[in-house]
Amino acid sequence: MNLFFLSMLIIAAGGLLPLFSFRQFSLMKILGVLGISIGCGLGMLDALSKLSHDGPAIASFEYLNSFSLAFRIDGLSAFFLLAIFAVCLLAAIYSFHYMNHPEKALRTAASYFFFSLLAASMALVVVADNMITFLLSWEIMSLSSFFLVVYDYQTPENRKAGYLYFIFSHVGTMFIFAAFGVLYSHTGSFGFESAGLSDAAKMAAFILAFIGFGSKAGVFPFHIWLPHAHPAAPSHISAVMSGVMIKTGIYGILRMYSILNPHTPVLGTMVLVFGMVSGVLGVVYALGQHDLKRLLAYHSVENIGIILIGIGIGMIGVEANNPVMAVLGFSGALLHVLNHSLFKSLLFMGAGVVLKKTGTRSIDALGGLLKHMKVTGVTFLVGSLAIAGLPPFNGFVSEFFIYVGSFKGIPVDESPVFVVSLLAIISLAVIGGLALACFTKVVGVVFQGEPRSPAAQSVDEKGPTMLLPMIILAGACAVIGIYPTAFMFMVLKAVPALGLDYANIPMEPVARMSANITLGATLFLALLLVILAVRRILYQGKAIGRAGTWGCGFTQPTVRMQYTGSSYAASILEFFKPAAPLEEDHPPVSGLFPRATHYHSHIHDIIERHLNRMVVNPVLWLFDKLRWIQHGDIHLYIAYILLAIVVLLFFV
Amino acid sequence: MLESILLWSFALLTAPLFAGVIFKVKAFFGGRKGSPVLINYYTLVKLCKKGSVYSTSSTFIFRLGPMVSLGAAATSLLFLPIAGHAPVLSFDGDVIFILYLLGLARFFTIAAAMDTASPFEGMGAAREAYFPIICEASMFMILILFYRLTGDLSFAAFFSGGQPFGLWQTAGSPILFVVIAFFIILLTENARVPVDDPATHLELTMIHEVMVLDHSGPDFAFIEMGAFLKMFFYASIVARLVFPFELSNPALNLGLFSLGLLIVYGSVGVTESVMARYRMDRVPKFVLTSFALAFFATVITLEFLK
């Protein structure tokens, strides 16, 4: 445990030192980056060693003699710690060249301070062992990330995004408070235990916690803050927030599950259905986006959906007394947590480089970047293949395990199991297809073809500290994709912490499946090499010409004739029209001498629409009616407090 | 093992031949003599002799695309039982792996098309990204049915040994649905009429053909070969379902399998001769038919097994 606290201390130092040295811009950045990255590196080593040991590490401190701060690292915590530290480490390195505005020195220093707070608090969230510690860390995490979201506070859009995030994270926290309240009212202790809870109370606590944690994780329909907050934050922060911070919501759901150990079949189905809806709609909305970072944010909703499908399959497997299904579901979900944190932070970093060098996030204004940004382009391509779940990259591995887990539910005849397994498989297949469509759009429109605007024309990719983390992440995606065995073992160390009551989970079947994936992937790569060799031979001594693209007889093509992201996605979006209404603004071309026209499209998030109408407006109306309470007179407020205390005395 | 590898080589060598059958059938319906059955081999050799011209817009992805699609198609045949014989390789879950590997090939075909900056290729790419989504859903629906019947997740368990004869015996009528569903998937995935017309002359109405407009020389040969192999992959699944028996004499068995393949390729030719291509917005409905068939097959099976 000591090593863990040491790493927290170093991370904190990495946050504090920049505040005192902001006059020296480079020195400040070096101090911040070194502190955070060394701390995270140490934490990673610690988490790895914890994953190889059995038995949790425990520490607790008395605080103000009234309650204790308790910490505990078990397999599940260590697994999440690994992802958190890995991504924060790389994001810190990335930030060195990304934060290059000396005129904003103080603000940059503050951003390092909040970044270190965020990194440390995320780590504390996953090791907290009682409600007080957990909520304390949770609040620090929410607040520090809020300040990072409003880094560019001059833009009204970003302030709005920050505000939205603030509300969502706090309403979500209220639900977590409520869930913990249910626990406390039955157990009378702040510890994570559920002795003496009735099934109904467990169910209530789980659902409340699911809403609370779901709003942090970005589960549909609590995802609205995500596509606003992620684009607003600096890119390395988007990488951390999307890569690991939203996963603390997943951690919360899993932890609640292990504490409550609820035996209500309906909960597994609930988690799975939320996962399916998040997965499918997340990627549909992503497909309709024009803003690169917003698109990636919606993909987080999709991937959280895939993770929830895995967890749902796991929970259903437990209920159906099908240990294989349960273990495969949970382990697939956990591996996807790690995988998503890798490829999503990679993609956000890539988007960050694009944004930095071109100054625009608009997909349809870009194009042809691969020619000037070799490293960014190739690593982004790897990230895209991984997020689309294609072999031989890591996204495929975790989806594979979730698939196999779901198939284990197919022969079960108990009524919900077959149906939900079927739904899980079909939705995974649809998500896979849509994700492929979405990322061929991103890669095709942003990195390939010809530049669509001057902004994308003469770009470079200077800044080695931005490229290095992306290379490492892309490498990790490929390594997990081809050799998943070691990583599956780590996952299997985390699964017992869920309290599934399986004495010991055999490694052998999982190892065999991992070995099969390795076999398939290497075979494919070997064949690819053979084909490459054949191609070499066939092209030996041949004339290779270069010419313009064949325009099907048209001789004066311009770059504006290229297919855009909007047109690429149009026909698929048409299919999902009821769930994703597309608003188009396009005055028709008419007359002999038509005037200039324009085309503008916007895809509506139905939840955003309905939330405004059904929740925000009534709440505003209500508070408007209650305005008379707020008098501005301090005596009256003191009277309110007195009154409240007197009323409470009656109840307690 | 040796026999499996020989059969795999048989697949690689004869895939262009079977694809030539389609031309013959179409020529017959058109009242023409038609090109020789070996036309595809001549084309491949001709392409391999040529050099290439690359678009100035394109990058390395453009050159990677043909290789990946050929590699994926060749790998997928390694896992498929040919003529009912055990495949070269097989593991639990290889079906998912292969479907996703073909997805990888699709990703690179689309990416190679987007690499040229051509609006026509973009249009084809958008369609190529769209229709297979439904195909994939219906493939997985069929997998669910097969898993329910065999309890296994590998091509070897579905199409070799006593299968798919056993499948016909346990659930005959649902399998009939599956054959049709598979045939629709075959037409969609391989860009045949009524989804896509490989012989059309207008780039605006193409899907697959327009995506490979800019490829030339050996690269284009790779694409063609990949397409033949992919066609062979789907066709041999349908052929095995149509002729589910396995004869003890290997030569006769291979003959029977080839006959099945001829029937499948012939039907593709007949479909192409008697039908017109659907309007693009009708295609999703056509492909959804295959999903609906697979779905009903699964639902019916639920009762059969009780």
The number of domains of chain B? 1
Mean pLDDT of chain A: 91
Strand-pairing-aware structural class of chain B: mainly alpha
Largest sheet of chain B: none
| Helix-strand pattern of chain B | HHEHHHHHHHHHH
Tell me, what's the shape of chain A?
globular
The tally of strands of chain B reads 1
Please describe what this structure looks like.
The complex is a heterodimer of chains A (652) and B (306). Among the domains of chain A are: 303-533, no CATH class; 607-651, no CATH class. Chain A is built from 22 helices and five strands. Chain A has helices at residues 2-20, 25-52, 75-98, 105-127, 131-149, 156-187, 199-217, 226-232, 235-245, 247-260, 265-287, 292-319, 323-358, 374-387, 394-408, 415-447, 464-482, 485-494, 508-539, 565-575, 606-625, 634-651; strands at 57-63, 67-73, 544-547, 582-585, 600-603. Chain A has a two-stranded antiparallel sheet with strand order 1-2. A two-stranded antiparallel sheet of chain A has the order 4-5. The model of chain A has no long low-confidence stretch (mean pLDDT 91). Chain B is mainly α and 306 residues long. Chain B has one domain. Chain B starts with a helix and ends with a helix. Chains A and B meet through helix 14, helix 15, helix 16, helix 19 and strand 3 of A and strand 1, helix 3, helix 4, helix 5 and helix 10 of B.
